[in-house]
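Hey,

Quick one before I head out. I ran the complex with zinc ion overnight. Inputs first:
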Amino acid sequence: MEEKFKSVSIYDLYERFPSRDSCLAYLAKKKWESGFTCKHCGHHHYCSGGKPYVRQCTRCRYKESATANTLFHKVKFDLVKAFAIVYFIATNKKGISSCELSRTLQLRQKTCWLFRLKVLSAMETHRNVGLSGKVEISDFEIGMKKVMKNGREVRYKKRVVLAVEKKGKGVSHVYADEVNHRGYNQINAVVERTVNPDALISCYKLRGYDQICKKYQVISRVKKTKKTIMPLSYRIENSIVFWLRGIHHHAELLQYYLDEFCYRFNRNQMKEEIFVHLLERMVCHRPRTYMEIIS
Ligand SMILES: [Zn+2]
């Protein structure tokens, strides 16, 4: 099958990646597509590292596997199942919980939880494209609850800043960022790295947005009440909140889930290719350890 396969059914997936070997072959091909560069000394020549899909630098003798320095680094379970997790995350319109992955693939829930977060790392927003044209900026709170070791339930809130680019009557692009709950001072920083300087902004009439109004051309400021809302932003806010409740049930590591939501939303047009796109991103992404993820 061609590498850039468009539509992938579960049948196609197992036919294309039936074994660890086929997964490694794919990763090696993607990883060294534009040639080999030794991670230690930068040398470009290599010989076989003695095992399949392992390359050894001919200068410093450093050996590198196809999974090393990617998000598949040190995956302790079957690589075929790891590819299947990427597949399920990519192809389920609303994502998939670690419990469901665990049931489907007969892996431990914690294993699925951790690898799932690695896949979500690859969905991280790169912000290469700043929002332009008419852009709505808003913020909202998400209620959280956490069960402590003594069984006590603690409730708290997290704040999210939302930047929504309008296109016609709809939305073309969304970025969402978790910010410090207490202060509005981070809104400005989020907007600066997300929105192009020539954008036309709509935002709330709150002190936290004053800085933005000095830097951008503001076309409307809406007083934030239950009746006066910015309809597009409000729609996206609700989608995020309902989706979080439905799929993840909690959102301790909120930014991962916000990135997942935006990744899907912004690639609405390329649904069929998301699986391949995610695999490619995972190959290019540096590895992430459990400690890095939870911190
Ligand atoms: Zn080397």
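The chain has a mean pLDDT of 88.

Talk tomorrow,
K.
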